[in-house]
């Protein structure tokens, strides 16, 4: 034996020997005389039991000594020994194994057993890397990777290389035969050593937790045992089960909490006792006695000590299947005995592994959806909705101020909740309702309570992929088990994948729930990466502390109820992130329903008016009323409520056809609008014939008495079609009557509404008006009048959220209530008040002191109501009397609007700008304001020459073989353009997009003026910079400017503003880069302003232009409405009236309504004859001729043309005469008299050429081309078409050019040049589509179908015919529809589908017969004859060709020859006898003999 060797720094190491004094392992000293080793080392030494003696000695040499085994942990392979002779040194530090980072460098030093002949080893050091935790045979170990750990080193300490702290004890190495896990070393954890050293050594085991560390443990409760695992602890012990005392304690609490009792509230400062309420604190103590055995309690205590030393949070997840009914949140802290959930560092949650499986944190801002169930029938005591809404607003107010988005679901039905959840990702769903074990009492559509379980709720209310991250259940018993131990409602939600569920095990007071959720949502909204488990823990502590330290009786009462113990959080993990803090905040898309022009709020934003929302849709759906009248003071929200009612109706069924008419209306306007909606519905249902179609056509006919039109609609349309007629802003049609009554000014309109309400069928009326009215005594009971009430206090508070200055100043409940009362709960008045108050930026806000302005409002209420009534008013709670509210609102307006105008009057241009914006019907930009307050400056006018710019762009792109469709490619990174050309292209693009500038210079400070006016809330600046004024504000301002009694009397202000507005819209048409549809919109706005300014002549001229363009586009309903509106304001003796009647005739003729067309032409003609206006008489005769020709009445057509021609010649109107010659030529052509047709065309052409009328000459060239085409002279036809085309292109007549391209296509097709034909048709189609000429486009589609059919491409042919048919149906062009049906019949016949062919021909024939179009009737009957022949029904074909022949002979058209040829062929095939029998079914004997003579001549 050599001398002893001292090993520096390892004096705490020793070896353990067996009875033969042979080393079997290593040990180390943690305190003088206290040694640690592996338990299996002692077993190898034969001393594995407590009290056994074993030999130990220091490594490096020295005398051996005896040690005694004092503690053993067989599971974790650890043992503790004591000796009277300590080793030289002790370990410096012990640190829990969980604190070691993965891949941390470590070292192991021990007494190795090495087989090396002749050489002994007493110490071996091995380096390694820490590899973290291992769960082996349900026991938690640590692992490291080292290549030189040998037998004998078991029991050695694992030292962290950085500071030589002990972080584990070597248990063994993995011996792998196959090489897997080579070098792996199992390490017993320091956390498991801690209990062995407790009471033996005073060793401080450090946690060394990194910043942000958390101690996460799970308390698992099985049938017989409790296990606490995690954070270095893993302790299992038997529990005692539920004791009788615990059962009784829980029974007492639940019995007392379930009794009917007064709810403690603090909103009115009133305390009502809650007798017998028992705290769960005692139950929690009994629960600990049963389920926290000593070992588990000690482990939990150690955990809390560690947390306090490191000041890190402890998160305890309770997993107790079958025992969830126990109040785990009431467990006491084993150290102090105080409630564990109130410990500053502890979070307790109920661990549901499935929670979070269907939700994940997403980008902010935080979005909270709130649903309050307040059923009117069933479901226990009625939940006070207004109080609940107030409580919810309290709960989410802080979150809202932190930029959270809050949406209130109007009704807590599963359908309504689903609609709002579908809108966008929801972070928190807050449900306020009555609850019962396993159920939540929501509402159904009728307002009755509906109990739903969690599975039903998830299925019906949660869209796929939209599971909220957090569901808050502000209801009783939502975490109480259901019948037969079924899972609680909250547990089921967690099982269905909610990230976290906040629930209650018993009842809970409103006060506590409100404060708790308020704190939770404030925590969530105020954190970048909010964690709901931590938020509830913090809220639970803070709320209880607030109640416990509160001085008032309410706080003390609630504090004594210990309601912190009844709130539970169910989650799958100790952290449930609600918002993804790493993702950029996204702008939430608000879904705004399209309600035909009505102002609607985004889904989920409409709050309150629940009674109206519940009751009124039911009235409209049922038979109790024919209509609903929403009336109330301007700005109270009538239109918004109407939009919400409509949305609710459409949510229940999509059958409703919505018709909206706003402002002044007429009988014709109403019926035309309803007819348009009914027509679209019939087309969607493919009902193209029958009584309903006739009724719809009649409804638009102003010549028929409205009683007849309504009667037809009732019988054939309204009986089957659910039409909702909305008359918005109906006060424009009312006038004050006797007393306070209002009546309809137009007796016809009153009669229409009275009759409609008396028998509406499936239709319903929804009317908004500032004033109530009754159409007629008989209809009073059929029109349900509903006064839209002022906002309730809770609704007002919700609105205040969007009014930052008011929200900032009205900070306490009394201040909010005072504001609510003194403005009468009026939304717009609240905005006025908000604008008068100072904000955070005084330069852009009002300057009125809150106390001063509210006192003035208070005084105004007293002055208006009187002392007695005002006292009663100012003491109202939660809701206001609607009648008095109107009076109070008007008093408030006097104060607020007058204050605004007084402040703005000294500001240059402020009042003029207000007047300007008061007349516009839609938002406008600052260019509009220059027409009102700008300085005239012609040099500032700038209208970029876009045509020239785009020509340069096209030229530039063409050099690279690109077109305008490839401009993005040309400007992109891979552009083929040179750098210089790319720069040029960018400059041209900038020039093309440069907006024009009006001929005005903006006044200095215009932007500041707009900001200042916006701050008053009298106008609103939109996100795109445009500005707008609410209609009610405009009306109130107009009242003040027009009132001689006011201080702001300026009667000319509004008229001047209308003139300037008209000038602005007309400038836009001339200068702005926009399409023609927008041009027409702008012209209609100009027309409105001109009429308002008293300039009907200019308005009439603009109307003529608008109608002309609408007619070209086929927008015939719009054109008709404009004409009817024009006739309404035109004087009865106006010379303009005949022209408008004439145009109504043209519209009727275009739609195929020939009787109405004739009536209108006659109406126009009669007036012109009375006025002696021969020029216009000639126009009417001419149009009557065209109508007769369309009907096939050629003699009448010729008579009318001659009447027209005679007058024109007498007046010397050569151009008009040329037009008549032209039309007489077309008539001769249709008759087959081609020489006469050519003579007439030449007459027309000669005059046009002499007059230099190139457009007229082009028309003649075109018609001469048609004539040549019919004669088979294709070269002459092409020459004429080209002549016509050249002139039209030179004149810029694109529509005319399109017709020429079309005809050239037909010519090419007949020549067999199909590619050229298709090219020409496409040229024509492109122009028609660009012009918006839908009728022309339909003709092009039709011809492309004929071309495809000629090529044999039947699917393409059918597609084109359908395209054409669809347009004709939408236009109501019955002649065009009939042509499409006919062609579809030919296609079906070519395919051999004879039944379909016959169906289509019959459709066509029915329309042509209704139109009285004789030539087309003959064509279709003739085609039916051909079909019969193809079907080998020769006898059936004969009568059809006979009918067609008779018609064609009577009108004198050349197509009769076709029938003669067919009949001759049929006679040959059938024989004389059979042919005679078939023909005599049509002809009498004389006619039959005439037929035989004709056939013999042709034969």
TrEMBL record:
The keyword Mitochondrion does not apply. PROSITE patterns: TPR. The keyword Ribonucleoprotein does not apply. Residues 308-546 form the CHAT domain. Keywords: Repeat, TPR repeat. InterPro entries: CHAT_dom, P-loop_NTPase, Peptidase_S1_PA, TPR-like_helical_dom_sf, TPR_rpt. TPR repeats lie at residues 1138-1171, 1178-1211, 1218-1251, 1258-1291, 1298-1331, 1338-1371, 1378-1411. This is Tetratricopeptide (TPR) repeat protein.
